[in-house]
Amino acid sequence: MEGKKIKALTKWKYCPPWIIKALFRSSFWNTVDGKILLTFDDGPNPETTPLILDCLNTHSIETVFFCTGVNLEKYPLVAKAIIDEGHAIANHTFNHKSTRSFWPKQPDQEIIKFNELHQQILGVLPRYYRPPFGRITPELSYFLKKHNMKNIMWSLFLYDYKNDLNIVKFAVRNFLAYNSIIVLHDNVKCKEIIVDSIDYIVDTARQRGYSFGNPGTCLN
Question: Is residue 205 in a domain?
Fold first, then answer.
């Protein structure tokens, strides 16, 4: 009983509460095909992206990288490697600015500037967006709909940037679901544990009979 109480009290730290999901129904909080989707924020990064790509290739998993424009501009070859491996790149703003910091003044600058760079480097516009720090507003939802973009949130946040594998394991062990959208990070803060984190997620999911999807079907 005590363990159940602890789990209930800590769940909100890793999983968004139902009230937020209800307020922003047009956002994706879980996959729609009953499979797990891994996602990676903040890249591309030459120190961590290749590690992630190799690990994903080992497990035959496709995913989506929510990149910042500044890193996309710095490391276009790393970005192209992501695409070449069969993954998707999505919009995480140009400078990783909170939505609230630029709305309502010129809300398009951070998002559109990224889109333009994405098209310049990769030849297509991104389909998906994730707001830095998870901060969304009704105005943002309207803006994304106007530009034919989908807002991708999450159902499981692992705090891997704290570089503590025990935190990741606790969250996965207690809150992983068959239709989870999981947030991991593609940056040096979690370099030491990122491969072990992916391995643990995959092993736990498959032990429970869960499977992994890809952005095209999970976010359709």
Answer: yes
For the segment 25-78, what is each residue's pLDDT rounded down to a tens digit?
A: 999 999 999 999 999 999 999 999 999 999 999 999 999 999 999 999 999 999
Q: Which domain range does residue 214 map to?
A: 20-218
| Tens of pLDDT, residues 121-148 | 999 999 999 999 888 888 888 889 888 9
Domain CATH number, residue 69: 3.20.20.370
Looking at the domain assignment, is residue 29 inside a domain? yes
Give a yes or no: residue 5 inside a domain: no
* DSSP-assigned letters across all residues of 37-81: EEEEES---TTTHHHHHHHHHHHT---EEEE-HHHHHH-HHHHHH
Classify 156 as helix, strand or coil: strand
Residue 157 DSSP SS3 = strand
Closest CA relative to residue 114, chosen from 72, 64, 63, 82: 72
CA dist 44 and 67 (Å) reads 6
The number of distinct structural domains making up the chain is 1
Average pLDDT of the residues of the chain: 92
Task: Assess if residue 9 is contained within a domain.
Answer: no
Extract the runs of DSSP E, i.e. beta strands, from the chain: 37-41, 64-67, 88-91, 128-129, 150-151, 156-157, 181-185
pTM of the shown model: 0.93
Query: Is 90 exceeded by the pLDDT of residue 1?
Result: no
Two tokens at 166?
């025990």
